[in-house]
Amino acid sequence: MSGPSSYDFETFYHNVCSDLQTRGEVHNMSKHFSQLADDNERIKFVLEKNLVNGLHWKELNYSPKDRPESQRLRNLGNQVYQKNRLNEALEYYSQSICLAPHPLPPNTYISHTQDMEDSYEELALGYANRSAVLFQMKEYELCIKDITRAFNYSYPNNLMYKLFERKARCQRAIKDYARGLESMKEAEMWMKYSNLSETKSVSFKKEIAKNIEFLTEKVNQMTVEDVKNSANLGPHASGCLAKSPPDLDNRSNEIPVARDDIKLKYHPDKGRYLVVEKDVKPGEVLMVEKPYSSILLPEFYKTHCQTCCQRVLAPMPCSCCSKVRFCSEECRVEAWESFHKIECQQMDLILGANLGKNAMLAFRILTSSGKIYLEYVVKKVKEEMQKLENSGNCNEKIGFNEEGVYDAADYRTIYTLVGNTKQRGVGDLFKRGLMATFMLKMLELTPFFFNGGADPRNVQLQDKVLVGGIILTHLQNLPCNAHEISEIEIPGGTVKETVQSEIGAAAFGTLSLLNHSCDPNVVRNYYSAHAVVRSIRYIKAGEEIVDNYGYHYAVMSKEERQRKLYNQYYFTCECVACNCNWALYSGLSVSALPLPETPPEQSKQILASYAKYAKQYKRSFDSVLQGKFSETLPQLLEHLEFLDLNITRPFKEYNDCQEAIKQCYSAMGNCYKTKGKKEKEKEMIV
Fold this sequence. Notes:
The chain is α+β, with helices and mostly antiparallel strands. The chain has helices at 9-22, 26-34, 39-48, 67-82, 86-99, 121-136, 140-152, 160-173, 177-190, 198-220, 224-230, 329-343, 347-352, 357-369, 371-391, 412-415, 426-444, 448-451, 461-481, 558-569, 576-579, 600-625, 633-646, 652-668, and strands spanning 262-267, 271-276, 285-289, 293-296, 316-317, 325-326, 483-490, 499-507, 515-516, 522-527, 530-535, 546-547, 671-673. Helix 6 (121-136) packs antiparallel against helix 7. Residues 1-5 and 676-686 have low confidence and may be disordered.
């Protein structure tokens, strides 16, 4: 069989199928494959049939640093900067920084094709020039960070005065006068190394002297309180830019990412699920979870941090490849130590295989966990499952560790997620098995097996079967359990034109326990990669917490919802909206009716109260459209609670109120507000 000409998996898969058909082996192979008992046997079968032997890839498949290209991009940045096209200049400089030779990370043991550099001036110039753009954009803290990075990478001595002067102006702009004075004095000191003409030098020194006089006066006016507060001014030397999620009060000891009034239950018909033990009002935070593993979708590699998924205006590059970006040194180090040292020199192969987000997430789960840990956990889980099965208490305690904790940071919570293997056909499992061995072949080109104590040039069959079996498990359980990481964009501050984008995918051990309803009682929002779950309905004690898998009764017909849910998740939804055939949004009632069996006198009082609430609600709704989110949210939550406890559903205003609340929460999480274009002064740069 001739191998595919590219990295593309689908090409490889169709070649394999065509070859089997030509040889007349499809029926016989399908019969044998259907009789295999578990994922390890399926992987062993594919390996022994030598179906991936036709794959021939280079040893290294990535985009290394490129000094000439870095210089070319920096020059392009200079050209558009002179024309005041700041956004274009920013991207050119960022690309230049990504391609500039860079010191390698400590303890690097993987292959490198780039020569070691004596100087990283190209990198320093990229950061320095980008700092000029950031200054014009009034992104003063990011500007200071880039200036600091330029200093770290051998910025030319004859230009140092410019960076210190720019840094001082940033510090002056954020009222960090004491540090600004220090920086301006540094600029004055570095002037002796400048190559400016005598005339320009005299002029610049006069300007510096004026600034020193101004800053000295400001510093002398500072009170003791001002000095204390100045410690919080300006950027830290580094630091992840990820948006912090809200605090979770009263964390559960049993399920640490959830509140202590949330319990895990089990039922044969719906598996494991979560319930509340106390009444919950709309707007309460029920869960805050960091993903076990996450990926950024490739189309967002240039705009978001590879580690925390935060949108980044002034990214840092990988030290080795030129493909990925980070918001900070912290995220760069975390990525390298966790997964990127494994993936770095195969990024073109990983992306070029076009495996899809679930397969890429499965790959990330492995690269971020490491072979030794995976092997230990899988062996442990199988032992625990056998013990639980023997005790007759199997299903309730799946995924719990030895201390009886369902820990979302523990791999077993991901490994034990349901994959619906029994519902899958032979063709489905065969393709996934072939994909798993394809990905296994990719892993053999990385340091993954080397880290696991195996010889990467001669990986033993038992190691291949173990790792391939794990990949195949995730190729089945992630389509049913992985979650998107989303971000909303509000163009020009116009809420009506808000667009939601899926920027990544993540594996959450606890969030995946939430079952679906076409009328959910919670909403998920993302703060960088963290998932925050809040109530958007009144939830009574003992009631199940139910999420929505993307098929809501108000926007999709029952028939379509049922079909899509069954095709992807293998269940038939029996929520209230399905059982009662609730109408689509356009057909919902616009009349407020008290709940059935409400006494007539009480009904009058409810309708009178509703009339009062409705006026206030309409004002609040209009405020949301104007972008006033945090100040409006309490009134919306109060109105929703009133409707929940008093008015019959479905009711159009209820849906509108819920959507307004969702919009408020979205704006608090990953939210990108585009700015209008402003004319800005230009500054001479290198």
